[in-house]
Amino acid sequence: MTERIYLDWNATAPLRPEARAAMIAALDQVGNPSSVHHEGRDARRRIEQAREQVAALVGAEPRNVVFTSGGTEANMMALSPALETPDNKVGFDRLMISAVEHASVRACGGFPRHQVEEIPVTSDGVVDIGALDRRLGELQGQSVRAPLVSIMAANNETGVIQPVEAAAALVHAAGGLLHVDAVQVAGRIPFDIGRSGADLVTVSAHKLGGPHGVGALIKRSASLHFAEPLLRGGGQERGARAGTENVAGIAGFGAAAACAMASMRTEGERTRALRDRLEAALDAGPTVIFGRNAHRLPNTSLFATPGLRADTALINLDLAGFAVSSGSACSSGKVATSHVLAAMGVPDRLRVGAIRLSIGPSTAEKEIDLFLKAWIKLVAGLSKGKGGLAA
Ligand code: PLP
Asked: Of all atoms in ligand 1, which is nearest to the CA of residue 328?
């Protein structure tokens, strides 16, 4: 079999050895974390240690971390019309989301479609803060309830970093709450829940070297209350999410979070250098790099070469040993073009060619160079009217 080169870290990052070790140890742990006996308390201890490690990812208080089955569930939980704060006991009847959110935010949680509106982005994929400001002002003029707003910290396709702090200031001035999907940011670049102004933050384990199927919704303040939890039953997670906890998954999440935090700076610098090496080479050809002028995650590049379709490129690259993505993982397998690029005003002829490379700390320079060689061959084949890398 061809040696594989994995360049799809925004879909899922490889499991960190420390996360695997923590999970294996937890799998051998007998006992329900809600039981009061010794075994139960041991299982509880693993969860509470992970809660501290995950809270530290975003500078939150451990008691404000609610473990979930992943980023999707955390986003669903956050977008609840029944969120309560000390100043708002009536809940929300309006949701504003940016036009480039992940599908799990675009599903709008518990809000009916007619109560949801989109905030546009600029051609670089940055949320249009002026448009958000204007719309919040119009809503206040109509004396409707303050909105719940959801803006991601960085986009999973383009890597574009969003102006969360500025958005939080506007949303709070209008009396609203801000939810931030930080799934692609947590453990990769610094993000502090207090400094950002976010009221609620979503994180996911498998994007930072933890296991699949575990994530968290993190509150800035303990006074924020989920009046209608998605899962009801036992009183786990302080009543916010019933069900016996995924002890091994949570332990793996905690260990991965601690490693990501400890090595964030060095890993970030390394991946940025590799990403820049890739883009410098792509710049020499006809390839367009999306979101190029915006602040972006250090590990992500989304690009297209006119005339080269992403589905053809993906198949050829896969056969040649490269795992890359066309936009987000959740949309791969479908032929639909990216809603993110559509919102940025990218024409269809380029959208159909968008390929995302996302890398991580163990990506080698040689792997980037091998990818570039393969890409150049694909593009050259195009001008000769041939499709694949074999050409
Ligand atoms: N939000 C963003 C920005 C993502 O990239 C993803 C996963 O692709 C999710 C949410 C969903 O997270 P999970 O896969 O843990 O459900």
From this structure: 8
Measured CA angle at 138 (ends 133, 140), to 5 deg = 95
Structural domain range at position 331: 5-13+264-383
3-state DSSP assignment of residue 259? helix
What backbone phi and psi angles, to 5 degrees, belong to 103? -55, -30
User: Looking at the domain assignment, is residue 233 inside a domain?
Assistant: yes
**Element holding 165 (H helix, E strand):** helix 164-173
Q: Final residue of a domain: which of 239, 258, 277?
A: 258
Q: Name the CA dihedral angle for 173, 177, 181, 186, rounded to a multiple of 10 degrees.
A: 70
Q: Which of 330, 335, 364, 391 is catalytic?
A: 330
> Are the CB atoms for 209 and 256 separated by under 8 Å?
yes
Instruction: Tell me what pLDDT residue 324 has.
Output: 97
Q: Say yes or no: CB of residue 46 within 6 Å of ligand 1.
A: no
- Has this prediction a pTM greater than 0.85? yes
Does 115 share its domain with 251? yes
Question: How many domains is the chain built from?
Answer: 2
Q: Are 64 and 222 in contact (CB under 8 A)?
A: yes
Q: Compute, in angstroms, the gap from residue 206 CA to the centroid of ligand 1.
A: 9
Q: Which amino acid is at 317?
A: L
User: In the prediction, which pLDDT does 328 show?
Assistant: 46
Is 259 assigned a catalytic role?
A: no
| Atom 9, ligand 1: residue with shortest CA distance | 71
* Contact 104 CB / ligand 1 (< 6 Å): yes
Q: Are strands 83-84 and 355-358 parallel, antiparallel or unpaired?
A: unpaired
pLDDT in tens, 1-38: 578 999 999 999 999 999 999 999 999 999 999 999 99
Check: CB of residue 153 under 8 Å from CB of residue 180: yes
Same domain, 270 and 164: no
Q: Is 71 in the pocket of ligand 1 (CB under 6 A)?
A: yes
